[in-house]
Amino acid sequence: MQIIPTDAIKPGMILAKPIYRKTDGVVLLQENVELRESYIDKIKQLDYDYVWIHDYDSSETETAELLEPIKAETREKALSMMRITFSQFKQHVSINIEKLQTLIKDMLNYILGDSRIVYIISQIRSYDHYTFLHSVDVCVIAMLIGSIMGLNRNQLEILGVSAILHDIGKALTDFRILNKPAKLKPDEYEKVKLHAREGYELLKSRTSLSFVIPHMALQHHEREDGSGYPRGLTGKRIHPYAKIIAVADVFAAMTAERIYQRPVHPFLAIREICSNAPTKFHQATVDCFTKIAAPYVRGDILRLSNNQTVTVTYISRNKCLVKVISGVNEGEIFDLYRRPELAVTQLVK
Fold first, then answer.
1. What's the CA gap between 239 and 11, in Å, rounded?
2. Inter-residue long-range contacts of 39-46, CB under 8 Å, 24+ positions, other chains counted
3. Which residues of the chain register pLDDT less than 70?
4. How far is it, in rounded angstroms, from Cα 265 to Cα 262?
5. What pLDDT is stored for residue 105 in this prediction?
């Protein structure tokens, strides 16, 4: 299996993973479908950056299967549940916490199932359903970070529920503001900021939830130096889970398709987050985050400090195989993570 850019797809290739409609996650093309010209045109119209293709002739022993930290069907289930949950909170209807907790346990089982798993941005990136997609992504990233930080199973489950509900206050935010196709005015931004307190108020009335969960809705925009909101908390006054969710929240937001913003490449997003530690983000949390967030996807082209140009062929938590495509030793394949003397100086493509 390999990941290739959409402009490199050719008729006769076999789809290795389903193609989803970005607006609602509905499957449009099933895996193992042979791609025809009409299918390829449709994929390009859907604005996909890359697709998964079966590579039966590959001699590589590594697999790219581990790049996705949750199964596609689990993601679909999570998106559906978040649509329902937001709607129920908006209408002040009782929600099924047990179903949500079961979902988190299923996601956690998969995340903890292989120590090589890294987070790679989802192909389903639609601003129409940004809030739901974002909630799921933040949940996955947060639990991956928590697992690296040594949280036990019960702690990870509480963190997961906290993360997936961190933005629940937006259920009460004016839809027109959330989906405004331009930069928010100061008064509009102040209204959006209310979602932290409103989320706290919505969640604290749910007695079946851990008392920690409402506080994560309240604290996920706090920053180490006190520059966050709503209370301007600093350092030790911020709950450790909120520090994890803060990093996950920013990374997911930067790399997502939004109505007024094109996604930032994960390499650049990770670099931005690292540059803001320890001033904005907790240093130890960011250090763990960099171990589970994939800075590249297969097919990325990088320029290195030794003037070589390489393409990424495989990436996992502890390995990043690249193939030299220009410069000295063209054709050589090596693990970039085992060459600390080499730095990535440019993301070519």
1. 52
2. 40/6, 40/9, 40/10, 40/11, 43/6, 43/9, 43/19, 44/6, 44/7, 46/19, 46/21, 46/22
3. 1-3, 22-25, 55-71, 114, 120-129, 207
4. 9
5. 92
Q: Which two tokens stand for residue 116?
A: 């090589």
> If we measure between CA atoms, which residue out of 233, 183, 46 comes closest to residue 128?
46
User: Residue 327 carries which DSSP code?
Assistant: S
Residue 309 is inside which H or E element, if any? strand 309-315
**235: nearest Cα among 222, 217, 248:** 222
Which residue carries 């179903």 as its tokens?
A: 99
Are residues 151 and 143 in contact, defined by beta-carbon separation less than 8 angstroms?
A: no
What is the H or E stretch that residue 347 is in?
strand 344-347
Residues 17-47, buried b or exposed e (16+ Cβ, 10 A)? bbbbebeebeeebeeeeebeeebbeebeebe
pTM flag (> 0.70): yes
CATH 3.90.105.10 fits 2-59, yes or no: yes
The reply to whether CATH 1.20.1540.10 applies to domain 67-292 is no
Rounded distance between C-alpha atoms, residue 114 and residue 1, angstroms = 18
**pLDDT tens-digit map of 45-99:** 887 877 878 764 443 434 334 445 666 777 778 888 888 888 888 887 777 788 8
Q: Rounded distance, CA 269 to CA 271, Å? A: 5
For the chain, the structural domain boundaries read 2-59, 67-292, 301-347
> Can you tell me the distance from the alpha carbon of 51 to that of 66, in angstroms, rounded to the nearest whole number?
15
Which amino acid makes up residue 33? V
What the block records as the tokens of 214 is: 């409402």
